[in-house]
Amino acid sequence: MASSTTSATLNSSSTQVFFTFLHGFTSDSSVGGGGKIANFIAQMFKVDIEQPDLNQPSFNEFSVSNALKVIDQLYVKKKKELCSTSNTQLKMNLVGASMGGYIAARWAQLNPDKVNKLFLLCPAFNLAARWQEFLTQEEMEKWRKSGKHSYDGRQLHYEFFEDAHKNHPLYPEVNCPTSIIHGTKDQIIPIVSSRKFLELHKDKKNVVLHEVIDDHYLTQSVMQIIPVNSRRIAAAEAAEQRLQQMETRGVDIEQLRRQQQKKVEMERMEQKRNPLGAEGYGAGGLKCVSRPQWPYELQIPVNSSKIHRIDPLRLSNRSLIYKHTPVGYIINYIKI
To answer: Please, which domain of life does this record's source organism belong to (predicted)?
Structure first.
């Protein structure tokens, strides 16, 4: 995958932020639903997403260290493109799937001042140890002696394993806000690795794990949400066009926006004062029907209640699907 030209988003006068998606092993963008989610973010935020090819100089010579160099080069390139002065700081929102998730976390560990947020989809933590589980001791020894291992019809050099084992930790330590989505039915990268990562970061409140009843490809979660939110985007664009038409008729659009913003702020203040709402009413005085919590709304308290378990198949209300699935997480997470 070639890297595409990107426009920055979420910028301030002194900071520029851009999005980067790191693919899985063998350039597989389908793992963790990563490719679909990356494309959705691009559509949602009206930005391009950098998608560098981490298999440099080739898949045969792929290693974590070489992949990190690819991201280094991308950062230097974007620095020249987006930062007009030496005082401007450049940061990345890194989205990584499977192997790309591990590499994203490792790059964030090595470059803490260059990463804004991490969003990891079924990340391949415990990487070197996992390869020793994939292969028998005899197969590992054969790989070491021959220097090559056939994977997915291609040859992978032994230096890949040596590099991961000797030069990179099983669980990178990160300091930036980090949100992880991992399927409880993931048989390729078992969810225990993300739980271990969370345990090692138990003192950091900005590291959160969302567990979904899904596989390594997050098949159910991603496929439910993207069509729904694509319609949301289309509706938002149509609304913007209507506002433009009103503006041509002399309507003060900025005043309308300020009134709407004020209404939203008042509702937020009311929700803080009365989060449960009055009897028969929700926060902000909205009429509602009393009901118990649904199963997917329950938060299981494990290490400061940082693990959230969600079953996407129980999301009968499509507006709730937006909130409680991978794409919903990432949209809300990036906006904060």
So the answer is: Eukaryota
Nearest residue to 49 (alpha-carbon basis) of 104, 103, 97, 7: 7
Q: Could you please report the per-residue DSSP string of 165-200?
A: HHHS-SS----S-EEEEEETT-SSS-THHHHHHHHH
- Determine if the peptide bond prior to 57 is cis (ω within 30°): yes
| Intra-chain end-to-end CA distance of the chain, in Å | 29
Place of tokens 């329950």: 298
Residue 83: partners with Cβ closer than 8 Å, 6 or more residues away: 16, 89, 90
- Which pTM value belongs to this model? 0.66
Alpha carbons 59 and 92: distance in angstroms, whole number: 25
- Cβ neighbours around 208 below 10 Å, total: 20
Is residue 125 within 8 Å of residue 171, measured between CB atoms?
A: yes
CA distances to 26, 49, 99, 101, 156 from 151, in Å: 9, 28, 15, 20, 7
- Third-level CATH fold of 15-126+170-224: Rossmann fold (3.40.50)
3-state helix, strand, coil in the chain (%, to 5): 50, 15, 35
pLDDT, tens digit, 9 for 90 and up, residues 72-120: 999 999 999 888 777 888 999 998 999 999 999 999 999 999 999 898 9
Distance of CA 290 to the CA centre of its chain: 33
Which residue carries 């993207």 as its tokens? 226
Q: What angle do CA 324, 261, 235 make, to 5 degrees?
A: 55
Q: Which amino acid is at 307?
A: I
Q: Strands, E, within 128-238: which ranges?
A: 148-151, 154-157, 178-183, 207-212
pLDDT digits (tens, 9 = 90+) for 259-279: 766 775 676 666 556 544 333
